[in-house]
Amino acid sequence: MRLIICLLLLAACATPLPIQAEQGMPPVKNAPRPMVVVHEANVISQETPPHGALGMSTAYRISDAAPGRTMEFRRRDLHPGSAIGEHVIAHDEVYYVLSGQGEVFSGGTTARLTTGMAAYLYTGANVGIRQTGDEPLSLIISYPKSVADNDSLLVDLDRQPDESIRLWPDGPPGGVPDGLAQHYVSRDNPYGLVDRAIHDVTDPALAVFRPEHPDGSALLLIPGGGYKWVVVEKEGYEGARWFARRGTTVYVLSYRLPHQDWAAGPDTPLQDAQRAMRLIRARAGESGIDPSRVMAMGFSAGGHLAGSLTTRFEVDVYAPVDAADTHSARPDASVLVYPVITLSQPHTHGSTSQNMIGPTPDADTLAKYSVETSVPAGAPPVFILHAGDDAVVPVENALMAYDAFRKVGVKASLHIFEHGGHGFGLRGIDTDPLQVWPELVRDWGVSEGIFTD
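^ that's the sequence the OP posted. Answer follows.
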């Protein structure tokens, strides 16, 4: 309380720092300013940040420097072993420590955090925070927030995950193959949005987006990337922000790729997906979710992985590592968005199939890893979404999936848009018939008992 009162009293005398004033602009190209870490006992309130009074309210004149923006103050409690994974920030941020201990790392520098300290990070910086010690690390994170229309699909574009959960704290099954080094690659797009992909994933994780008003539902989002990389924002964070606004706790999965010499070969991504579902349920109590209301949603190659999880949830693809693996890996409902379903010609996506099972698979391998050939009667209900003019992953994939689930008596819903192509996600569709797809999914999820009205 003392901190918040201080922030409000001092806001009028602040000198604004440079900010990125428009929602969705691309990352700043110049090198970001290095982070500054201070303790409140050493602050001189008459000076401007980072050496003046703590708090983002003292760093901005909202009406002058950031028209159309309001301030966001979020409390984050990182439990032992958890972290906010590294991410590029699109605005200045302040991390103030209420209690506990941790470390903040940015630009190759790591600084220790304790109660009463604050870390100032600047636009374009790559930032991460981890909890240390035995007690939770409690933070207030403050930053300018773009005011988005509640009807917009792209919302809260400045928002980053609240927490990152490593799937395998002691390392993935079988160890990391030689020569792999996980890294991010930025991609161009016509919307001026932040758009990254993770290459050579070695430390798969769940990026968590917590809702302000949770309804007990959970969603495992699995982005695509052709099993060549894993998309971050486009089919991950952007959807997570939209569903989190509606009360769902969202977990965005980064997963290992099957063609990179992992011990499990084609089963490598499924190891991560099964483990993710089990971890979500194992943490249900502390996360405030109902373990019987967990949906999986996958896009493109991520749709193949979500389909594999939906049909092969009981297949043993790794040895249990802890108590979390006593939980079921079966989703309670699944959504497959422009999914790769078959790995067989003529309707597969060639590079996805090759990255999954190689260039010359035999018939048994094709049958084992194609979703339509292995649907059990106990699979959860599915919602399948595709565009009829998809020239990358043919719409026949959606038709094959719908037919396969119906044949074994699994509830299936199919929606095919006439136009849309491939990979639309939530981008550029606000005035297109495609704009209704998230609400279609959500309404279906309500009917299946996952979401609430």
